[in-house]
Each structure stands twice: as structure tokens, then as C-alpha cells.
Amino acid sequence: MAPRLASAAAGIIVLAFAASEASATVTEYTDPTTYSAATSNSTTFTFGDLTAPGSVSFGPVTFGGLVFSGDDSSSFPYVVGSGSPYYGGTAFFTSLSSTPGIDEMLCYSSGSTAIGFIYGDFADGGGQPFTVTLSTGDSFELSTPANPGSDTGFVGFVSNTPITSVTFSDNGQGFDLLQVDESPARGVPEPAPFELLAAGLLSLAVLGRRRALRVERTARADRQ
After folding, report:
1. 178 CB-contact burial (10 Å; exposed 0-12 / middle 13-18 / buried 19+)
2. Cys-Cys crosslink for 80: which of 41, 84, 171, 213, Cβ 3.0 to 4.6 Å?
């Protein structure tokens, strides 16, 4: 009896571990159409209403459940209003660090499970590598668009756990965000840990029953 209980306990531990792993799934999208198909009830944020056309506003920016700031107290994020020579006059939020070689754009979220960004970089040359790191611990490597201040790219993430922060780091002179889409994820939810555990216990019970039947058949054969 003891060995059977030990096996069952080990099975429960493995299943519980698998359940915790299943709760940290993040999917990256670099195509906005595919991202939109994986989400629903999106809220779109742009920076056009935060400043007058052609003006600059210093300091962090907050709207909805999102907060944007720079990487240190000496960097001044700002919003360039429409009418600027960059991105065809589209307003954008940027972070320029006073520390050479260091630049990070921070986005704090109230906990969305899906968040996407249209991004660019007007200060560096095109095709510069940058890293996106989520509060989940996942990191993704991308490159800036080919034409600085003109072309834009897209990256989005769908997670089955809340995303509370996103960090953009390109180790350069500036990183720009032009639009943010935030929404809950759509689709079949991942099995909850308790559901996985219950399914595992049921499987263990079935396996135990089959083993008992085999032992009983063997004993009968020996008696005969």
C-alpha cells in the first residue's frame, strides 16, 4: 500500500507543477491583424490629444490603465504633437535618456492580458536591435524599422496571466510609441490548476484500478 501512496503523491506533485507552468503562457505577435484576431474588446490609445500640434510636453504620461515613463529620474519622456516632421505628423511618446548607451521606455499596466504597440525610433539608425521584457519574465528580441522617424513596426502579446509592465530597451538615444491597444484575450481559456489536478487524480485512480485488476487476475491464475 505504501508504494502506491508514494506513487500517487509523486503524480500529484508533477501535476501541480505542470499546472503552475500552464499559467504563464505568453504569445508574441508581430502582425497587427493576427493580434486583433486573438483579442477582443480592444481599447486603442494614441498620444494625439495630449499636446497641442507641434508642441512638446515633458514628464510621464497616464491614460486609461496605462502609465508611460522613462528609465531614470534624469530622462524626460515627452509627447510630440501632430505637425512634427516625424511619422507624418503623428503624435508619439518617446524616452530620451541622459545616460549614454542606455535607453528604456517603461509601460505600466493595470493588468491586461493582451497589449500591443505600434513603435518606431527617430533618434537612431534603422534596423537597431531592441528588447521587450514583460512583467511575466518573458523577453523578446526585435529590430526597429528601416527608416527612422518614418516607418513603424508592431508587437503585441497575449497572456493568460496579467501583464503589469512592459519595458522597451534599445540601448540608444530614443524609443517611440505611437499607439497602444489593450484588451482581454479571446479564446478557450487554459485549464485551471485545480481542473488539471482533478484530471490527474482521476487518471491515477483509473491506473490504480487497472493495476489491481491485473494483480487479481494473476492471483487467480496461480491458484488454478
Report:
1. buried
2. 84
Residue ranges per domain, the chain?
Answer: 24-183
Q: How far apart are CA 153 and CA 14, in angstroms?
A: 41
> The whole model's pTM is what?
0.72
CA-CA distance, 78 to 204, in Å (whole number)? 58
3-state secondary structure at position 39: strand
- Is 24-183 a domain of CATH 2.60.120? yes
Kindly report, residue by residue over 161-219, the tens digit of the pLDDT.
Answer: 999 999 998 876 678 999 999 987 654 344 444 444 444 444 545 445 556 555 566 65
Q: Is the separation of the CB atoms in 131 and 141 below 8 Å? A: yes
**Residue 186 one-letter amino acid:** R
Output b/e per residue, 53-73; b: 16+ Cβ within 10 A. Answer: eeeebeeebeeeebebbbbee
Query: What distances in angstroms separate CA 72 from CA 99, 101, 129, 140, 197, one per listed residue?
Result: 9, 13, 21, 22, 44
Location of C-alpha cell 499636446: 51
State how far the Cα of 72 lies from the Cα of 8, in Å rounded to an integer: 51
Q: Is 224 exposed, middle or buried (0-12, 13-18, 19+ CB in 10 A)?
A: exposed
